[in-house]
Model the fold of this input.
Amino acid sequence: MKLPMLTTDEKIAEIRRLYFSTTRQSIQLDLEKALDLLKSIPNEDERERATVYMEGMAQMRRDWRGAQRQKVKGKRQK
Done:
């Protein structure tokens, strides 16, 4: 099976799609996929176009991990 080569615009579109479709359960895997795509973009200026999605996904992961830790912490205190 031959895999198609993605253009820079297609890579950024996929990162954007991952950003909007990620869930608490899939955030780690989606962030890893997005990071792989970001690393494969050869031009720094083009990579900057995906920065907002990458930062957003990182923030979601922090928020969801923090909420999970609070939930676990609350159970221990009872």
